[in-house]
Specification:
Layout (H helix, E strand, L loop, with lengths): L24 E8 L7 E4 L2 H9 L5 E11 L13 E8 L7 E4 L2 H9 L3 E3 L6 E6 L7
Antiparallel strand pairs: 1-2, 1-3, 4-5, 4-6, 4-7
């Protein structure tokens, strides 16, 4: 881990790659390779994943095109499909770029109040939609 990192104990659900029965989309995972930056970027949007390939001049490295699967919110509303929960992606707006992902709107709002930018779709800035419960629960 990097200096200053602290585990939150928070988690979000996702589908195993190739096992969402078309409920989710492949989520790309990218890592920045610039000095002073150590952040991962996740997206279920093919457009966002392609932007990292073509729009940033090699400053990001793709770790995988299918880290896990989650649904995309409706565009432009940001509304998640039934039985899914919003996943918020927040960015710290600094040269030492960092992203945080949460399903907790209280955490999202606190981070925005601390200067983070909520990225993505709709007025609530929903990046992805995670399953609201485990597929293995009975």
């Amino acid at each position: 881990m990097f200096a200053g990192w602290v585990r939150t104990g928070k988690t979000l659900l996702a589908y195993i790659p190739g096992q969402s029965d078309n409920r989710g989309r492949s989520v790309c995972r990218w890592y920045t390779n610039l000095i002073n930056r150590a952040t991962h970027f996740f997206s279920a949007s093919g457009d966002e994943c392609a932007l990292l390939v073509f729009g940033y001049g090699g400053s990001w490295e793709e770790e995988t095109a299918d880290a896990f699967e989650d649904a995309l919110p409706a565009r432009p509303s940001g509304i998640c499909p039934k039985n899914t929960a919003p996943v918020y992606r927040l960015w710290n707006n600094r040269i030492d770029s960092d992203h945080r992902y949460t399903t907790d709107v209280v955490i999202k709002n606190a981070m925005v109040a601390a200067g983070y930018t909520a990225e993505s779709y709709g007025p609530d800035a929903v990046a992805m939609c995670a399953p609201s419960q485990s597929l293995h629960q009975v």
